[in-house]
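Revision sheet: structure tokens.
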Amino acid sequence: MKKLMLGNAAIARGAYEAGVTVVSSYPGTPSTEITEFASKYEEIYCEWATNEKVAVEVATGAAITGARALSAMKHVGMNVAADPMFTASYTGVNGGLVIVVADDPGMHSSQNEQDSRNYAKASKLPMLEPADSGECKVFVKTAYELSERFDTPVIIRLTTRVAHSQSLVEEEARTEVGVRDYSKNIAKNVMMPAMAKGRHVFVEQRMKDIAAYAETSELNKIEYNSKKIGIITSGIAYQYAKEAAPDASFLKLGMVYPLPEKKIQEFAQNVEQVYVIEELDPFLEEFCRSIGVEVIGKEKFTLLGEYTPELIRAGMENRAPRQFEAAKVPVRPPVMCPGCPHRGIFYVLNKLNLHVSGDIGCYTLGAAAPLKAIDVCVCMGASISGLHGMEKANGRGFGKKAVAVIGDSTFMHSGITGLIDIVYNKGASTVMILDNAITGMTGHQPNPTTGYTIRGEETRRVDMELLAKAIGVERVRVVDPFDVEEVEKVVREETEADEPSVIIARRPCALLKFVDYGKPCEIDTDACKGCKMCMKIGCPAITFADGKAKIDPTQCNGCGLCMNICKFGAIKKGQ
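Predicted:
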């Protein structure tokens, strides 16, 4: 039976049909739904790991034991997972191991654009790249066959448009492959230098064998039409190129590493002119040039962002892309939701004019106007360790008081080690953990601080107060982020202290089902002085017109933060 599926859902379906036993991941857009969909299959053990490194280690352990395993992540998550992944390339597998990475051309939800195909080459692992949901499912099943045939983890690369677009997928029955027998093999699985040297020899031969396989594999297909133009491409770029140049001949690469040298040369010899069309880095283009195939590539097509059929068509016609007139709609920059517990924190930090070392999550939006509270944001966990560096370089951060801001899930992911570093190296930084009881930005996944698993089962909850104290932080405070006077008082006290401190701002995400603040707030126009203090919190439900504040009842959820800001009692709960 055929069904419309997201690419991410099709990856999960492929894992189910392939007989996968273990899935361990950390949520990250655009990959999150892979594990969420996988968790719907009772036959698969699924978990949210604390970070991508742990997730790949869990999956690797399962694969070495003999089970088929999968780990999914976004492109920046692969940076975190690289350590175990590179060595798993040497150990190889027992049961099949598939690592799915979702790149984000255009940076719809990411802090950088990076091309994960480079990881396949660097780690000496084969990589497949599907172009639609149907291929997502098929390629996962093929990846497990390759993994076990060649004794290797296999990477599957998606991009946002494949991960989050729908196309037809044929559902088939699950193949119960079971768990393979495990035999202790120190030379294969213990990567001390002496063993690793021997395994490196194996890895190099394995890549030659897979390259030979790539020459004849149906993953790499030639489609001959007009031989005036030939296009070498893969993934979503194939879909765009087919629309832009339907009469051209195509070499569609489903295996993007290792690449089929002879097939590329054969294709190039049979067409008059060869274009390489690929988003982000000139990965295919550089390989083509290295084997003597002259191609037209990035000199015509940008290194930046996503492609479109029009952009490709314009590049092939040697002209600038047409500019289509967009509908005239108001600019809508991303903002924290009405009732977001982070808003009160950033209001106070901005008011106190503190330097703020930020992190990855909903609270990154604290950098936007009118709050404009965040000075820097690099990567997961960097708020804490970055602040420590600022302190050691300039004394409490740029010569002024400073704090780090990090979410509960991100603190579990990679903030704990930074806090240990502060304590161990005699720092005196103040770390604010914004505990909204969920992993918010990626769509409400549980994490180790929530007390629930991916399937909603109750489990042990990490107590962040006790954790901070166990690390050696003696000053640990808990505040309600809506009580702005108390927050201001505590922040002043902790940033004055000459020792490490942790402030936990605890209030659940306003979008959680159990959060109900009652009736929306209202403005008493007679009491309103038009001072615009309420506008400083940046709540999208509050506007200002005709000298008075206004609250949109369709957006306001009655959280009451604005009531705590107003000094004239002009904001009240609706009746």
